[in-house]
Design brief:
Radius of gyration: 22 Å
Helix content: 25-40%
Structural class: alpha+beta
Number of helices: 10
CATH superfamily of the largest domain: FAD/NAD(P)-binding domain
Strand content: 25-35%
CATH architecture of the largest domain: 3-Layer(bba) Sandwich
Largest sheet: 10 strands, mixed
Order of helices and strands: EHEEHEEHEEEEHEEEEHHEEEEEHHHH
Length: 391
């Protein structure tokens, strides 16, 4: 017979967004919290994938005793190139724009912090169903039916990714746009140092980003490659031998990076799409991170948005409790959702615009896009400050 356990807050998903939400809620409230997932934390690999995090997110993590400095590379310049590999159209020089953080080590740090909190319970279970118990007196709960036991919570936080089981269990639909692109990602070793520069090349096949990666002994000869390639080109590229792929990357990038080889082979790949839930909040539940919205990686902002969801959620829960309000009520959840609308919508719209603009094959349109980005480059006082606010 399945047992039943009741919590103030249930967080589904032990990824970085879910763990951060649980940790931030534990820091700012006295809630009894459970993190539920059926995955294991993997041991770090010699060359693990990395995430680019903005300086504001890094500061918020530091407030939770998460110091990413030892396993991250600093980004001091951001270049967007629509002309050639050596003549950037748009350059942001900004000391400490952010850091590229090794993913497994960030998850390990978050996991250790969560494990040390007395008011956070870690539950290894697979969620099979969701039930809402609306009694109309402000004490409604949401029940998660797991493979092992069942769990009730005054607030359920769905942080379980693009294929969210909580979202599906609640009957929430999604709007999806397929870009007909594949993300190809790897850790690349190059003979020329990156000099803390993140460079994005807007190529005919799709945007290719190189982001500083924390290499051995502080060397600057490793970068994270993220290439958003149209599907046909991705299939053709991935069908080649590793040596042929490295040769092509060298030809494309040698003006800046020199000879390129994989530090982690073969590269990973996954289809690219934009996704948004038809609803992100309701009585007793909230979706955050990719469970609520996922965007194209062209700006490297997807995880930053999810982590800002988590931090803002904890802030709103704490404020509601200080005012004697029940955050779980739909009206208070809607207030939180409204507070995240500008950030989510602006980034989704801007990344979508960039991708669609550079997917157009017309030479005239390409020249117009380069001209437009050149104008942005001249408006240093205005637009650059706006952009770097999100970096």
């Amino acid at each position: 017979m399945n047992k039943f356990a009741l919590f103030d807050t249930l967080v589904t998903g032990a990824g970085p967004v879910g763990l951060t939400a649980a940790l931030a809620l534990s820091e700012r409230t006295e809630r009894k919290i459970a993190v539920i997932d059926n995955v294991k934390i993997l041991s770090p690999q010699p060359y693990d994938q990395a995430w680019a995090l903005s300086r504001s997110v890094i500061q918020n993590l530091a407030d939770l005793n998460i110091d990413v400095t030892p396993y991250s590379a600093e980004i001091n310049e951001i270049i967007a190139d629509t002309k050639s590999h050596h003549k950037p159209a748009l350059s942001f020089l900004d000391k400490n724009s952010g850091r590229n953080v090794i993913s497994s080590l960030l998850k390990k740090d978050l996991w250790q912090q969560v494990s040390n909190r007395s008011n956070i319970h870690i539950i290894n279970d697979k969620i099979l169903g969701v039930e809402q118990n609306l009694n109309g007196n402000g004490n409604s709960t949401v029940t998660l039916r797991g493979a092992k036991n069942s769990y009730g919570g005054r607030l359920v936080v769905g942080a379980d990714g693009k294929k969210s089981g909580v979202r599906k269990g609640l009957g929430i639909g999604i709007h999806t746009h397929h870009y007909n692109q594949t993300a190809v990602t790897a850790i690349v070793k190059h003979t020329n140092p990156h000099r803390q520069r993140a460079v994005e090349f807007f190529m005919p096949a799709g945007p290719l980003a190189m982001i500083p990666y924390p290499g051995d002994r502080g060397e600057g000869n490793y970068s994270t490659l993220v290439w958003s390639v149209n599907n046909d080109s991705a299939d053709a590229f991935l069908a080649q031998s590793i040596a042929a792929q490295e040769s092509l990357l060298t030809r494309l990038l040698e003006d800046i990076y020199g000879a390129c080889t994989y530090a982690s082979a073969p590269p990973l790949s996954f289809p690219l799409q934009k996704q948004k839930a038809t609803e992100s909040t309701g009585q007793g539940w909230v979706l955050i991170g990719d469970a609520s919205q996922s965007i194209h990686p062209v700006a490297g902002q997807g995880l930053n948005v999810g982590l800002r969801d988590a931090f803002q959620l904890a802030s709103y829960v704490a404020q509601s409790e200080q005012l004697g309000l029940k955050f779980e009520e739909a009206v208070n959840l809607k207030s939180y959702e409204a507070s995240r609308q500008t950030d989510r919508t602006s980034l989704a719209s801007s990344t979508d615009f960039l991708v669609r603009l550079h997917q157009v094959k017309s030479n005239t349109t390409r020249r117009l896009s380069r001209f437009g980005m050149g104008l942005v480059d001249k408006n240093i006082a205005g637009i650059k400050n706006l952009v770097t606010k999100f970096v």
